[in-house]
Amino acid sequence: MDKLTKIVATIGPTSDSEDTVEELIHAGVNLFRFNFKHNIISWHNERIRRVNKVSKRLNKPVGTLIDLQGPEIRINMPQDELIIRENDLLVFGEDVYKQSSKGFSISHPQIIKHLKEGQKIVADSGSFSFTFEKNGEKTYLRSHSNGVLKNRKALNIPGADFPFPVLVDRDFEGLKLAERNEIDFVALSFVRSPEDILVVREEMKKYHVEAKLIAKIETEKALKHLDEIIEISDGIMVARGDLGVELPIEEVPYHQKIIIKKSIKKGIPVITATQMLESMIEKPFPTRAEISDIANATYDLTDAVMLSGETATGKYPVEAVRVMSKTVAFNERKNMVDSRKRFDFQKEDQDAIMCDTAYGLYLEYRKRKEHIAGFLAFTHTGKTIRLLSRYRPLIPIFAFDPQDKISESLTLQYGVIPFCFKQIGKKTRVNKEDIIKAVAYLKKQKLTKRGDILIVLHGEYWASQGQTSTVKILKVE
């Protein structure tokens, strides 16, 4: 049985060749992430085209995601690195360039004037901790750590709420690239409020970007507005790296579970990210704790798990994906739950009612121990597929649609195997001939066989929305 949980892999120097991209897809990658915090625009452009070329050659829908930089704060210093000792008093701000002082500035120095005495500041994912101090117009940081701080490392100000721009200049270049390459997903970093989502949606309209918008939850303020953010986003990423700096680290697992549960209930995909196989950047095998972390996210019913440095710069990118694939596939099979009891889904329209009926049939046939190969669903917008996916059945959802863009937008959805099948949908109505063609294609792909049961869902018309009208059992001939 193939895995149902999706895998997102970050493209980088150790994974950007066509051969490695193909290996990663065969190992289980469903979507490739391009991190705009690194590399120049032309580098990303070339790699996006490379992924699309391999996907087309393999005739397998593979999604693409641009992860925008957002208002991230980076350390700026005159030198490459700075040796820091506990209790050092460091110059903090642009004055560090005017005098030979020990200290550093930041990529958004204008926010320093908004800091209050005693504010906690951390750098390099929490490796360094400081307290903000003032002496007249002079600003300083009191160090509570020892070590070597490198230039351009990230800096966090937990709990702070400054008038940051939602997007930086580089992000607008990213949106242009997204439109040019028909990117499937755009991830917004450092979301603070639903207003941030609305601002970016407007910018996406200006640039004619039709991608789905993923909100990264990595700030304390985003957690306070979580329900509103989920309501207007197309997907969510649990960005545990910065979230673990903004919050006490022991609180992150709790919030991970809450974010996943609320996203599932809404019916939007959720990605669990950060340090899932961090040790495999250097080693060919994972730690037991990392395997437990992946399994835990699987039991939370996340749509996807993500690899960052493991596939971007790690020594064993393909091996990391194989480990992740095996881990989610095994633990999915041990996690049979009746999702209706767990999530209490709202049946707000006909599509939702029919998906609930289809899931009920699945449970009934499973109780009888009859082999169900999967759901066979026809879609024009992807809505029915997303509603069905939130039930987390332990069988695949074969999603057929006549458009490339819809297929690729479903690559992040739990349990969905999307097919852009242009042989169907040539007529206004969904007809018996469409179903026969779809079943024949599944048989050819060895995804079903004679005697299997398929649960079929479709509406009367191809272009109708919110009008799934048929749920039936089909025995494969």
Q: What do you see in this structure?
A:
This protein is of the alpha/beta class. It folds into three domains: 6-71 and 166-331, TIM Barrel (Alpha-Beta Barrel), CATH 3.20.20.60; 75-156, Beta Barrel (M1 Pyruvate Kinase, Domain 3), CATH 2.40.33; 339-475, Pyruvate Kinase, Chain: A, domain 1 (3-Layer(aba) Sandwich), CATH 3.40.1380.20. The protein is built from 16 helices and 22 strands. The protein has helices at residues 18-27, 41-58, 169-180, 194-206, 220-224, 226-232, 240-246, 252-266, 288-299, 309-312, 317-332, 339-343, 350-367, 383-389, 404-409, 432-444; strands at residues 6-10, 31-35, 63-67, 75-76, 81-84, 89-92, 103-106, 120-123, 128-135, 138-143, 147-150, 155-156, 185-188, 212-217, 235-239, 270-273, 304-307, 372-378, 397-401, 416-420, 453-459, 468-475. The strands form four sheets. Strands 1-2-3-13-14-15-16-17 form an eight-stranded parallel barrel, surrounded by eight helices. Strands 4-7-6-10-9-8-12 form a seven-stranded mixed sheet, covered by helices on one side. Strand 19, helix 15 (404-409) and strand 20 (416-420) form a beta-alpha-beta unit. The radius of gyration is 24 Å and the shape is elongated. The two termini are 22 Å apart. The model has no long low-confidence stretch (mean pLDDT 91). Pathway: Carbohydrate degradation; glycolysis; pyruvate from D-glyceraldehyde 3-phosphate: step 5/5. It holds the Pfam family PK. Its EC number is 2.7.1.40.
Brief sketch in words of this structure:
The protein has 477 residues and is of the alpha/beta class. It has helices spanning 18-27, 41-58, 169-180, 194-206, 220-224, 226-232, 240-246, 252-266, 288-299, 309-312, 317-332, 339-343, 350-367, 383-389, 404-409, 432-444; strands spanning 6-10, 31-35, 63-67, 75-76, 81-84, 89-92, 103-106, 120-123, 128-135, 138-143, 147-150, 155-156, 185-188, 212-217, 235-239, 270-273, 304-307, 372-378, 397-401, 416-420, 453-459, 468-475. It folds into three domains: 6-71 and 166-331, TIM Barrel, CATH 3.20.20; 75-156, M1 Pyruvate Kinase, Domain 3 (Beta Barrel), CATH 2.40.33.10; 339-475, Pyruvate kinase, C-terminal domain (Pyruvate Kinase, Chain: A, domain 1).
